[in-house]
């Protein structure tokens, strides 16, 4: 599945609902159970038949790629959604959404290691979404000027991708990492 295919979801309302339902169910399954999640269970959770799943996503790899691309496209939209916010708030809001993405990213990236072009395109899409937010915050002098979007993505991915004692600790540590970006 390509980036273009994600942008061209089915036109009919029922087919689009099925497509989106499959992506939602797969995202939840891959986050919870990993890349080996049962496709039959994903179809059941999406409340569609297995035939509908295979019609939309002929292979497990195609479904994993579609979920990953859908997440990246959602991050692009999340960047656009911050347009009316102050510089720091826009960047922080986008990074908080990026943290949600990290929850599904590991399983998906592991499954896509043999698709370097997909990974390269997605990386460019993420840099294109977050880069302008970072640059805007840097121009307003609310964020350190010595960092790049690549630095920020690596920092947040690393901090968000490890295990924590509980959700409160996870949120606290992620907050510390995001706050470290601010100008002093």
How is the secondary structure organized here?
Elements: H1 3-7, H2 13-33, H3 39-45, H4 50-56, H5 60-81, H6 87-111, H7 116-139, H8 149-160, H9 167-179
Q: Could you characterize what this model shows?
A:
The chain is mainly α. The protein has one domain (3-179): Tetracycline Repressor, domain 2 (Orthogonal Bundle). 74% of the residues lie in helices and 0% in strands. It is built from 9 helices and no strands. The chain has helices at 3-7, 13-33, 39-45, 50-56, 60-81, 87-111, 116-139, 149-160, 167-179. Helix 2 (13-33) crosses helix 3, helix 2 (13-33) packs across helix 6 and helix 5 (60-81) runs parallel beside helix 7 (116-139). The longest helix has 25 residues, at 87-111. The model has no long low-confidence stretch (mean pLDDT 87).
Residue stretches low in confidence (pLDDT < 50, at least 5 long) are none
Task: Name the shape in a single word.
Answer: elongated
> Which architecture would the CATH scheme give at its second level?
Orthogonal Bundle
Helix and strand sequence: HHHHHHHHH
CATH homologous superfamily grouping: Tetracycline Repressor, domain 2
The level 1 CATH classification is Mainly Alpha
Q: In whole angstroms, how far apart are the ends? A: 44 Å
CATH topology: Tetracycline Repressor, domain 2
Total strands? 0
Query: Major β-sheet, in short?
Result: none
Going by helix content, strand content and strand pairing, the class is mainly alpha
What value does the Rg take, in angstroms?
A: 18 Å
Mean pLDDT: 87
How many helical stretches? 9
User: Number of folding domains?
Assistant: 1
The helicity comes to: over 70%
**SS strand fraction:** under 5%
